[in-house]
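User: Run a structure prediction on this.
Assistant: Running it now.
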Amino acid sequence: MPALTPPSMMVHASFVAAIPACHAEGRWLDRDPAVLSAPAAFAAFVGGLLARADPATPRAHDEVPSSVYWWTEGTEFLGRITIRHALNDRLREAGGHIGYEVAPAHRRQGHALAMLGAALPVAYGLGLERVLLTCEAGNVGSRRVIEAHGGRLHDSSAGKLRYWLVTGPCEDAS
């Protein structure tokens, strides 16, 4: 059964195998499968992802601390989700608190829905009682995933939809 896991060496081969399909879509262009095939390079990559959660980690001025999780089943990398611990001006417009993607070979199997569902309690545990998620207006699949978890459309700007979701116990409407 798939689960959220911290990035690790366990999925090294399947993660590297997913890179060419992502490149074909114009994504992950900064990830070179030839480089990341080397265990030491992949271990450094994993270490960098894990370090993002530490507020003391040096980062670009427009980046915020974030927790990265991989959606895995055994040694199979299925997707990733990033929970940003705070918002800045850029993330308020596009990106939000949570960003996710499913590896191309594993799409349309319910992974995005399950992955977001597993991540919402993690976000709550980080002190985020509600989170902003954004998606392209034309991305019907992502819209359905967000709305299935109670996402409420806040607005639309520059082709992006912005939704707010409650992460923890539902508030009584009475």
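The longest strand covers residues 76-84.
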